[in-house]
Amino acid sequence: MKQFFKFTFASMLGFLLAGFLLILITVGIIVAAVSAGKSETVVAPEKTILMLTLDQPVNDRSSDNPFANMNFSRPGVSTQLGLNDIVSCLKKAKSDPNVKGVFMDLGDVPSGQATIEEIRNQLIDFKKSGKFIVSYAEVFTQKSYYLASVSDKIYLNPAGDMEFKGMAAQVMFFKGLLDKLDVEAQVIRHGKFKSAVEPFTLDKMSEPSKVQTLTFITGMWNHLLDGISASRKISVDDLNAMANEYKIQTPQDAVSLKMVDKLLYKDEVLDELKNRVNAKSIKDLKLMKLGKYAKVPEEDKVSSDNNIAVIYATGDIVSGDGDEGTIGSEGISKAIRKARLDDNVKAIVLRVNSPGGSALASDVIWREMLLAKKAKPVVVSMGNVAASGGYYIACAANKIFAYPNTITGSIGVFGIIPNMKEMFSKNLGITFDQVKTNPYADYITVTRPMSDGEKKIITRNIENIYSNFTKHVSEGRKMTVAQIDSIGQGRVWSGVDAKRIGLVDEFGGLTDAINEAAKLAKLKDFSTMELPEQKDTFEQLIETFSGDKSSVFLKSELGTAYPYFSYLNRMSRMQGIQALMPYDFIIK
Fold it and tell me: How far apart are CA 551 and CA 545, in angstroms?
């Protein structure tokens, strides 16, 4: 028997060691492959046509995490380059004599409106070189068509479809679920428009929420119409009529209404591209995906000791270091501090793409932004959303750039404390009892309703935070606190309206913000550096298989349901008083 146990233990130990060794070897192979891919240099042949698909979400910054660049639901398909690299590639291609044009093979473009805006603007700049842009789709969504509208020619599959119907914003509500679970959401907020709490207290949108939401999606829709109108030479009234009457019901309708130029199958589009570059046959076409073109060395790249630090702040604002999907107050503060204390960094650009989060963490980052502004020029570039806490961390900048379709504002504060007493007692048969030395020793608990005293304490804290928030914004924007309060109250604004009321200074993207920072710092030549520094590949691989990094896999498994899971997950992890906007609506 003893021999049997020895044999069994030895076999088990050997199996575990072999498994661990296999994991290390696999990780080593992946790291080696990733490293090899990074060092690969690509040469763009003559008559190259860049190919954009944009069928995966585009983040502000390309990730160094190899698993973040894998699509587990579609093996072999990698995620999109970051917006920074897409813009860089298009700038490079504009002056590359070997690149003759861009071919966009589009469908759904699952990225934010402002991200599409920046790519579209860069494509417009690319066209100034005299090079062509051709777009094709089996199905054009409104977002993909808006992007395609800058093209010289737009082609639609003869059996395809085109969506053009206007914009709607849909919000998901959980009050019915909480009622079934006997959970009461106890809410204290400042701001009549602070609708981030409504999904937990109502079963439909409040009137103030409807007003603000309709206002900003109307602004986004009007901006989209203006862009299409300018590109396709169709009046805004005619475009609105198409949407109002749902005139585009067949592919031929899209041609008749001059929204697309021709109905072609993909092989016919490739034949058109062949003729544009005088290739002998379709197989001689030099189509190069943007991911590969990113590895083509940039000619005459400026090298300077004068740096502009571009700091990426993406995701919910939380305390601590944060990770790839959140803005950690400590992590971003370190990056801002590093740029402030570096004598070679002459200016700072903070790229914000955030709906907000912890009010305390937002204030910590605001302080670092204020210190940086005293040392050197600081410019903010707003992405798809820079609202509530996202605006809090931006307001101290010398200048703020946003897109017309950026979602911003939401200057307000709230707290939610769930009362789960009835859920525990009625559904689970669990009750609670306690003793305490002082009246507030159990402040705050989810096992009973809040007392009047607790409500007063939380209300006072929220009012203090709102007061500080509006004070910081008034100082940063050089407006009175009363003016900020009148446009605050938690109200969300589009970039168009935000510029009109003074919350942002200029329309433009990250490139415009960098150029403005150079102007404020009086720089003729400069280089850019990106912060926070990304973790090394091995460390990111380990993190991928642990903790919140498992979201990489969840996204693949849950697909279109992932945003709902993510929303509930984020709300369940909230700590402290929040400066957060209800950005988890679905714009259709």
Answer: 10
Residue 201 lies in a domain: no
Tokens describing residue 144:
């993909």
Give ∠ CA 537-543-547 in degrees, rounded to 5. Answer: 165
Quote the number of domains for the chain.
2
In terms of residue numbers, what domain contains 524? Answer: 307-541
**C-alpha atoms less than 13 angstroms from C-alpha of 118 in its C-beta half-sphere:** 29
Domain shared by 329 and 245, yes or no: no
Determine if residue 356 is left, alpha or beta; phi over 0 gives left, psi from -120 to 50 gives alpha, anything else beta.
Answer: left
Q: Mark whether 288 and 311 lie in a shared domain.
A: no
Q: Are 281 and 315 in a shared domain?
A: no
Structure tokens at 586: 């679905």
- Determine which of 7-21, 151-165, 265-279, 383-397 has the lowest per-residue pLDDT on average: 7-21
pLDDT tens digit string along 20-57?
555 555 555 555 545 544 556 788 999 999 999 998 88
Q: How far apart are CA 44 and CA 229, in angstroms?
A: 35
57-113: per-residue pLDDT in tens? 899 998 765 555 555 444 444 456 899 999 999 999 999 999 999 999 999 998 999
Task: Choose among 95, 525, 82: nearest CA to 299.
Answer: 95
Residue 194 appears among annotated catalytic residues: yes
At 211 the pLDDT is 87
Instruction: Point out the catalytic residue in the list 388, 410, 474, 551.
Output: 388
583/131: higher pLDDT: 131
556 included as an active-site residue = no
- CATH code, domain carrying 339: 3.90.226.10
Angle, in degrees to the nearest 10, between helices 207-232 and 113-127? 20
- Per-residue pLDDT reduced to its tens digit, 376-423: 999 999 999 999 999 999 999 999 999 999 999 999 888 889 999 999
* Judgement on whether residues 280 and 403 belong to the same structural domain of the protein: no
pTM reported for the whole predicted model: 0.85
Instruction: Please check whether residue 519 lies inside any domain of the structure.
Output: yes
d(CA 477, CA 320): 28
Q: With respect to residue 192, please indicate whether it lies within any of the assigned structural domains.
A: no
* List 92, 100, 131, 194, catalytic entry: 194
Residue 108 domain-assigned? yes
**Nearest-5° Cα angle at 415, 496 to 220:** 15
